[in-house]
């Protein structure tokens, strides 16, 4: 603040060192002890340029209204440049409340002590301004960092909200599919239970048919064995045939009886064979039916495996939904945490903005006061400028009158010279005539 600015007078070495460190100008002690017009103009201009209060194009510039009052403005270039710089330095020193008054003589005929004091005051203000800027830099950097963090958090919140919206849309899209899969799974489980029951009944019937076929196979094998035995006995009997007719008759009768028994056994065996073949056909038909049922069971098994795979997929989808719910909860927690951080940052930003507004208000008050002072100084300067312009106009009028008088005097002098030359010529002619008369 301007009110806390003080005026510790710096030594010449300190002034030279500070000007060199700030890269404003490189000067010597001799120039400060015995300053000249060019030196003070240069050093004051560089100091004002460093403080951004004076620009190179400001030198020698006047308003058009002021230029119109001058007949030959190019003749007043140096004076306008000096007056402009003097006004800038005066305004700046009055703004920082310099105890000494800066006059036009301090530029045209500078004094070493006064020049050193004014330069020391401006250098002090430069140091004061630089320290204030350095003190405010961390606050400005913190504000910029906080603004960047707030913008990043806002972008992250937008991304999280978009991700949550996408997850909700996916959930809404997948819910009818999951319901359809659940209904299909229920139907498949019912079909599987009914098919398992049918499979059990088929297994029991198949086992019964298998037992009957085994019994028929045993009967067929026993009949075949009896047929083989009867054929062997028939062969043995033929070998035992004798030549006596009685015995032969008796044996023939016995053989006939045995043959009849064998034929009866053969018939019974054939009947049993036909029965077994019929049973075998029944078994074959049953086997075909069982193969058909087996193919159906394989199809059902494939359907069961597909149902199990769909059930696994449904379980995976449920796990995925559960994970997504957990992710949503974690994202909600992170969102709440980020919102809390954002609120804290907003509160901190508001506090910093309040502090900045307070500082800006104080600075604006000081600036308004300075503006009022500057306006008053400008008004005084305008009145002085008008007086100077009036004096310059009077001087120009006097010079124009003197020029006209000189011109009229010169013309009269020329006329007198011509008249005197004519008189001298006439006098010479008169003398010549007198001399000629005297000679006669």
TrEMBL record:
The subcellular location is: Chromosome, Centromere
Q: Which GO terms describe its biological process?
A: cell division
Gene3D superfamilies for the chain: Ncd80 complex, Nuf2 subunit (1.10.418.60)
All copies of domain Kinetochore protein Nuf2 N-terminal, residue ranges: 5-143
Any idea which UniProt keywords this protein has? Cell cycle, Cell division, Centromere, Chromosome, Coiled coil, Mitosis
User: Known InterPro entries for this protein?
Assistant: Kinetochore_Nuf2_N, Nuf2_N_sf
Q: Does the keyword Lyase apply?
A: no
The record, for Pfam families, names:
Nuf2
**Domain of life of the organism in this record?**
Eukaryota
Coiled-coil segments on the chain, per record = 143-198
Q: Which GO terms describe its cellular component?
A: Ndc80 complex
Q: Tell whether Aminoacyl-tRNA synthetase is among the UniProt keywords.
A: no
Annotated family: Belongs to the NUF2 family.
Q: What is this protein called?
A: Kinetochore protein Nuf2 N-terminal domain-containing protein
What species does this protein belong to? Kalanchoe fedtschenkoi
Write the lineage as a comma-separated list: Eukaryota, Viridiplantae, Streptophyta, Embryophyta, Tracheophyta
